[in-house]
From TrEMBL:
A Pfam family it matches: NTP_transferase
Record pathway: Bacterial outer membrane biogenesis; LPS O-antigen biosynthesis; Carbohydrate biosynthesis; dTDP-L-rhamnose biosynthesis
Cofactor: Mg(2+)
Name of encoding gene: rfbA
Organism listed in the record: Shewanella litoralis
The protein's name: Glucose-1-phosphate thymidylyltransferase
InterPro entries for this protein: G1P_thy_trans_s, NTP_transferase_dom, Nucleotide-diphossugar_trans
Enzyme class: transferase
Domain (Nucleotidyl transferase): residue spans on this chain: 3-238
Amino acid sequence: MRKGILLAGGSGTRLYPITQVVCKQLLPIYDKPMIYYPLCTLMQAGITEILVICTETDLPLFKSLLKDGRQWGINIDYTIQAKPEGLAQALILAEPFLDGSPSALILGDNLFYGHQLQATLHAANNMTDACIFAYHVANPQAYGVIEFDQHKQVISITEKPAIPKSNFAMPGLYFFDHKACQYAKNVLPSHRGELEIVDVIQQYLDSGKLNVDILGRGTAWLDTGTPDAMAEATQYIAAIEKRQGLKISCPEEVAFVMGLIDQQQLTLLANQLIKSGYGQYLLSLLNKNFPNEMH
């Protein structure tokens, strides 16, 4: 069974002074904490065993917010990242938790939403090899860039290239097999002094065990690591939720629709939030019958 890793460590320097007191993953994106969005992405993929990696300072705050996950029918464990040393470090820190299981690593400031997203996530979760995603962006220099040949086969993956070879960026969601921890241990620090996730993925590419799924125009991917990006994400979520009357990345709803909690459990969660529109929304779900895609 695949386990999830949610990386919510780091210092959030791109958001200073906002994050000098609280980490970015606890900041709001419209009506929910930022961390709800990647958490729900893992849940929608069918992953119920999740490790949250955070700093020692933020650990009590995350535990207060997320608890052990049982209220949503999942299990959440925690481990501390003493010093941020690159995304691949998350796989090394998660090794005891994974205990030989395949994994899905998601960054705590990444938001995914779109048509058929759940089907895409389930397909990736069911793969035996590694799977990453490609997303067309206007500013590929800011991301890991995937180069394809004319047959859509991957030629190269380069971290933040000065001259990108394509406009396809690699979002912060990666599905790995049981070898990921060992591959991460093979990685040497880059010129930035970090263990780059690209170097883990390169080992899968070299071994012929890498799948790349191109996310189409019907899917939104937002990296909410800057003030502008947070504002844009908030506007995006607000516009869709107000238009549709449905919430995006609401863990209570995802858990209920996926059968992880029942009506009684949902009612209990809703009553705890009854003074807000959020609690009223949860109660409204009891009388509705939505397809699985509508969360």
